[in-house]
Model the fold of this input.
Amino acid sequence: MFSVAPYLSTRGGPVRPNVIYSSYAMPDCTACHAPVDERPFASFKEPIFGREFALYRCRGCDVTFSVIPSEFPLRDWYRKADQFYGETAWIIHPPPQDDWRFRYFFKSMRRFGLAGELLDVGSGDGRFLERALGEGWRGKLNGVEFNPDMARRRTGDFTVTVSPLDEFLAKHPEPAYDVIVIFDVMEHLAEPGAAVRRIAGMLKPGGYFAVTVPNEGRLRLFERESWDFPPNHNTRWTSQSLRALARRNGLEVVELRVSPFSGRGLSDQFFYPPWRRAVPLVKRLLFGREAASEKTLGQLLDEHPGGAAASALGDASRRRQIEVWLSRIFYVLTWPVLGPLSLLLCAAAPSRRGAGLYLLTRKPEED
Ligand SMILES: [Zn+2]
Done:
């Protein structure tokens, strides 16, 4: 069933014979637009439509990237991929109170006095905006989200525009925002360089721009992270490539941090592979093979609110809590084995091997 292959590591992965790339034109880097004169170092065949993507490394800015043709049916792909990975909306990120990305941002908010008109690019279900309300954000909160289903889940006193991101960014060229944040979205974009240039243009002078991305250098025990390949993730970032991105767009680097490497993170690496396999099973047990074929578990539970499963598991936020508690119990139970392993890895792997990168930049004041 899980026949995704081949999984390739990003550095030094196996290189397919060059002959299959004879028809590839050498592309420009999607982050810095410099022409790339090397052949791709790897390729990935996505499992939904069977399309093969080449992975390039840009020597100029240190980004790994793939080119996503504009005619690729991305919306359709995501709809089907949800089902393929047995995905539910609630297994990707921890709840807002546990999320290191938000913790770092609100620390910056207090340290540098961030306030005013804020835009969350790719606001998803509005969890960051919700937390910003709770943290007492001083100013107006806005979001833009391309997925209407996600945007509909928002609750709270903020404005979310449903629009493809590139369209929204192109339509709002004026410097209208004091703070713009983009959490784990940039790696999904086909043209991240163009998007950040536009974002920099939307910032008022003296305004702040915060971005998080997965860390390409993170410690990975299991290389099988099929979500880290095109057309889902189209760029991979290092501290160096993030700094270069800021410089190119006239932004000053204020903070660059790596998420902490934790015992809990290690435990999650063991918890989530079986969890992801369990979700489709649970789906089939509760709703039968046929009913479960097209939809995610979250969607099915929402559609059958009267059922025993739905009343036991509750709404999306209740389900997120259940998942977090299960992963905590797993953490405690496996600690006798994973604890020593975690200490060993911490000694061997410095903090820069954490899973994510956080960059805070500032647009210089005009003279
Ligand atoms: Zn580049």
In short: Residues 263-348 form one domain.
